[in-house]
Specification:
CATH class of the largest domain: Alpha Beta
Oligomer: single chain
CATH topology of the largest domain: Glycerol-3-phosphate (1)-acyltransferase
Mean pLDDT: 87
Number of domains: 3
Helix content: 40-55%
Distance between the termini: 111 Å
Radius of gyration: 32 Å
Largest sheet: 8 strands, mixed
Structural class: alpha/beta
Amino acid sequence: MLKWIKSKQEKYKEKQEIDPTVQDDYDHYFCQLPDNIGAISSFILKLFFSGVKVIREQTLDLNSLHKEGIVVYVTKYKSYFRYLFYYSRYKQDRLPFPQIGFDYIVVIWQPISRIWKIVFSHIKYFIHNFGLPDPYQRGYFQKELLNGRSALLSLVEQRGFHRRFIKAKTDPVQYLIEMQQSIDRPIFLVPKLMFFDKNPHRSMPSIIDFLFGSKENPGKMRRLFMLFKNPGKVFVETSEPINLKTFLSAEENQKRNIDYQALALRRKLLSQINRHRQSITGPVLKSRLEMKENILTNERLQSFMEQHSQTRDIPIQKVQKEASAFLDEMAANYNIIVIKLASITLKWFLNTLFDGVTINEDGLNRVKNISKKGPVIFIPCHKSHIDYLILSYLMYNNNMPCPHVAAGKNLSFWPMGPIFRWGGAFFIRRTFRGAVLYSKVFSEYIHNLLNEGFNIEFFIEGGRSRTGKLILPKLGLLSILLNAYKNRACEDLIFSPIFIGYDRVLEESSYLHEIEGKEKQPESFMQVIKARKFLNKRYGRIYIQFHDPISLKDLLLQYGTPIEDMPPKEFNILCRNLGHRIINAINNVSVVTPHAIVAASVLNCAKKSFSFDHLMSHVETYLNYLLTQKAKLADTLLLDNINTIERVLDIYVQRKFIDKVTKDPNVLLTDVLFKV
């Protein structure tokens, strides 16, 4: 029998030498899906994945990458759910879709004719070679990728490490490196992330996590439950592609062996995916007690408290108790459930009071992209209490974590104080003068936030501007942030200057009273109750503009001295220059609103009474000047300035800022007279 099999093998080898195309009969595998899996299967997958949202802007470059080189999608965890989704949805959207799944075996979605072809080819190969065909060794993957196919690679799987290091099976990452070294076309590794939930992870997994898998990598039951419970809330993100050719040509990788290169590439991909996920969900949430313990037991604060105890002749226990009380006074108590409820409430609030929000989407996307490099410090101008609410709402609804917001201690009154804490607010005293221990505890709290990876929002002007003009920067908190970076709290610090403007500010009446010399009323629960009167009014639009983010790491390259070696004088110069740079950046993206330009035009009318045409001549003068200065104008001014000015004028008449002298409704608008 063995002699017969050997004779058959020898005859088959002779046949292969005569006709090499016989080899192709074996190259049919379950790790590849065909171009067409059938109308019924395609419809089922399309319907099943209809609740998953793809951000179209992030997929625009995929076709150009496919034309330039080979596209290989990369996921962190091995998942047939994700593989079938990318195959189905990207094929539907006419994007390069992954037909090849490295180390995947897909049977049920193969056409029956293809299943039989694969089975018979494997039987045939087994008869002649006493084994099964290996697509790695036979060069099948390389041939298919060079023919224009795309693939999916998963970095982490249950038995992946055992298979690579114990059984010495082919590592797909190493295979791609070897392939790249033998071809000229670049291989683009495109990291992909699927989010079933954008809530931050807890430091202690729940029982549900143990039973049904984590939110990052849910089990089958939890995945289906989340998909059908929240259709449209499951979404996919695309991270920045890695050019494998560029990666291998880097100086630190050129002289290394292929094992090191594969390990370095795997770590780089995992690190990028993890950073991208954290930029959306935020860092792991620790309990308030765990946070306090981390801060109070760190070496820097312990050393300072011992020195403070000896200098002031105070028992160390009393100093520690005081430091703990300071943390209770200032620290946020981030609660995702409260943030979700606040998002729903704020959506209703904004729709009730305002006509809409105009957002610079390109600027927001730039901030989202750079947020993967380090914590973002959001620095908006400060005109209203709505500022920190609208910015947190904007981040949450654009798949970014709500920042921790620096708020004045005056806002910690009951019951709003606890609610603000749950939303991420931490409270700061107006002055640190004489409070040495408080200052140190606060600095350590900021260091801890940055070290954990939390984004922070603060107002560099200190308080709300009563006139609408930007106030000179207050550098205290900025200096603390720079010191935290100096002490290596994070690899980079991203400053994001933001303009937030309003057609009308909610607090306009109280601002007028304060400008006239009356005392500012302290914030209280009674003011919150009285605020319901605002619900009967409309306040126009909100305008949000993002300046290009400022990377502290890149900025420091312009200085000759590393921040760790800067003397105090040079450090203070850096802090002051950065503060003014941020204020100027906010000013450069400020939006000229229709209400502002009409008010300026009315005030510049020489006579007490004026016609609509006369007013429009002043408006045109302003618009022409602003356009030559490349100032940012509200979109309504650019689209239809005449109707916009007319609407604003009507609002000013209704508010009795301007009187309409001509009462005859038949008179043309151009002939109507107004007076201040």
